[in-house]
Amino acid sequence: MVAINYIFAVSLFILLPLLVMWLCRRVTILSKIGPIMVLYAIGIAIGNIPNLPAEMGAVQKILPDVMIPLAIPMMLYGCNFAFSETRLLAKVVISGFLSVAIAVTAGYLLIGHDVAEGAKIGGIISGMYTGGTLNAASLQTMLKAEEETFVLINSYDIVVSFLYFVFLFSVGIRLFRWLYGEPTTRTDRQDDNNTTEESINISNPYSGLWSKQERKDLAKIIGVTLCIIAISAAVAIPFHGDWFTVVFILVLTTLGVAASFIKPVHKLKYSYDIGLYLIYIFSLVIATMADLSTFDLERGLHQVGFMAFAVFVSLMLHTIFCRLMRVDADSMVISSVSFINSPPFVPMAVAAMRNRSVLVVGLSAGIVGYAFGNHFGVLMAKLLETLG
Fold first, then answer.
1. CA neighbor of 121 nearest in space, from 153, 93, 162, 79
2. End-to-end CA distance of the chain
3. CA dihedral defined by 88, 380, 141, 121, rounded to 10 degrees?
4. Rg of the chain's alpha carbons, rounded to an integer?
5. Nearest to residue 329, comparing CAs of 190, 181, 177, 187?
6. Taking Cα atoms as reference points, which of 35, 355, 342 lies closest to residue 174?
């Protein structure tokens, strides 16, 4: 019975995205919503079904850790990179950190000072919303925050992050492109600027995947990706604890970019589409983890308000600062996702935006956030303590 439950859980997560992709190509309203949001809605519904088998939880923990390392290099192989993006990266990083600093400080003065350990929470979420959960875990130890405080931060972050994604994927991306005076649609195929959003929804990028030649390319894609993962893991192994993830993603991204300059790898036809499918699986799994029965919003109303204020005000400020520095809308959005939700969520946002050209900017911004999130969080906690 245990084995059957495992097989069922894995099959569910693998096959449901295929069904959703098929429906999105045939149902107009679903094509407008997009596979990511549909999978999120389905995932939340599944995650809140009573008495799910315990094996489902085990699969939920394993699959995201497998999907992301496979997807990131695959989605990078076909990209065309410009070294001028260094200046762009500097702009989004400056804007991202400054936006979080102002938003957290203002949120603390308005809401956070009424929360137990408010200054420490401000420091932790400052590191979390520029780096990721691993920075939050480090800061909890460094700032000696209560374990219960940290648990509540993680619980409420699920709510806030979900609302953040719903806003971005429903209206946010189009809104920011409109505000920046840019086209409201993009194509994730860089070599085909005439492809419209509608044609992407209708077409099936996976047709012909199992022909003899395409099977050879598929084997090459998997082989190159597994080599990159093995090298990245080998480099990261000496770095214990949270830094393993930082180094692993850094090396993984670097090698994925390097591989894109190798012509035979760059021309592999289905690498991006396969990586995209893995991101759909990741999106579904992540959504099933939102157990709404565990949230006590009434008890922690001020704390969740503090965190929501930090996220959405920092997004607003990041929008303004990036516009002033002449950063394009998609780079602004993808860097915001990387800071607020960490690099593993960047490919998911790229899929929703249908613009693969911003993938490296998003991943790079997140890596910078990982590297400096702890220092930034400590500084913010000290600042908030001085404000009372």
1. 153
2. 57
3. -110
4. 21
5. 177
6. 355
Tell me how far apart the alpha carbons of residues 12 and 38 are, in angstroms, rounded to a whole number.
15
Q: Tell me the one-letter amino acid at 29.
A: I
Nearest to 161 by CA among 63, 319, 290: 290
Q: Which two tokens mark 39?
A: 């999978």
- DSSP single-letter state for residue 168: I
Q: What is the dihedral of CA 193, 195, 201, 202, to 10 degrees?
A: -160
Is-contact 39 166, C-beta < 8 A? Answer: no
User: How many C-beta neighbours within 10 Å does residue 184 have?
Assistant: 12
Q: What is the pLDDT of residues 70-119, one digit of tens each?
A: 988 888 888 776 655 788 999 999 999 999 999 999 999 999 888 888 89
**In angstroms, how far apart are the furthest CA atoms of the chain?**
68
CA distance 304 to 111: 10
pTM of the predicted structure, to 2 decimals: 0.74
Whole-Å CA distances, 135 to 58, 364, 366, 376, 385: 24, 16, 12, 10, 20
What span, in angstroms and rounded, lies between the C-alpha atoms of 83 and 80? 10
